[in-house]
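Students often ask what a holo structure prediction actually looks like on paper. The answer is less mysterious than it sounds. You provide the chain, you provide the ligand, and the output is a string of discrete structure tokens encoding the 3D arrangement of the protein together with N-oxalylglycine.
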Amino acid sequence: MPLRLHVVCKGFVAEIHGVDLSVAPDHRTAGALRDAARSYAVMVLRDQDIDYESFLRFAGMFGTAGRCDDISNLHEDGSIRVPTSLESRQAAGNALWHTDMPMLVAPPLAAMLLAQEIPATGGETQFADLAAALGALAPDMRRRLAKTNAVHELETIRRRMGLTDPGEIRGEYPPAEHPVVCLDPFSGRLSMLFGAHTSYFTGMSPEESSAMLDQLLRHSTQEEFVYTHRWRRYDLLMWNNRRVLHRVLPYGVATDRRRLWRAEVVGGRRPRRWPQSMRELFARF
Ligand code: OGA
Ligand code: MN
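The corresponding structure tokens follow.
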């Protein structure tokens, strides 16, 4: 069956129909999926009741399949965790707008979730398009950001979640510094990198940094840049981690089961600045 693409948000989100990932995609299908990932920062494939190997094979079509996890509010024995447990409190960071693992030298290129158990209400995942948000910033602000770096740390998001015990917030990675405006390797377009892990902007005071982060978050998460995904069981959703912020919306963590498989595409290059002149940078919008 040929692959069919249904655009949900222009140039941002597409649903892909006509693909059954339980069988290895042929070259044409794989090529069409990779093409779609260049144009759409979020891709949704419905009804993918597939095994873990097939899920990882899908991740491997876009690069090196990396870390695999379950994202859930459950213990290994399947019972619901108490929300006050350390694991739950650390996982609660997903409720803040973030990019995954920006404290790595090369943050994952993409990540994907495959819904196994979904609460009846709440628990939607939201995505904000930072390429579109960048294009809508005032030219002065874009020019300023194009010369700015930001430092990202795991400890910072944990502190923002209200964790205070040094033993609980300590991250196992050193901080990383990246340009704020960088190239999205999928599309070659410019996007941004900041979020709940961002500790400060290089050369700004803590007050300036915090005001800048607030301003960027407020601007980029306006309704016009945001897609909200209401999960159905067996939805497979992939996002371009170099182009979007994402977060999970509240649900009954203490009472309702929520479990998704998760995989990543790793191994990309470190985030890069637009290598040409500023004039060319602005000619792109
Ligand atoms: C993630 C994440 C959000 C969700 O897995 O990286 O942020 O909706 N998940 O579970
Ligand atoms: Mn995440």
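The first strand starts at residue 4 and ends at 9.
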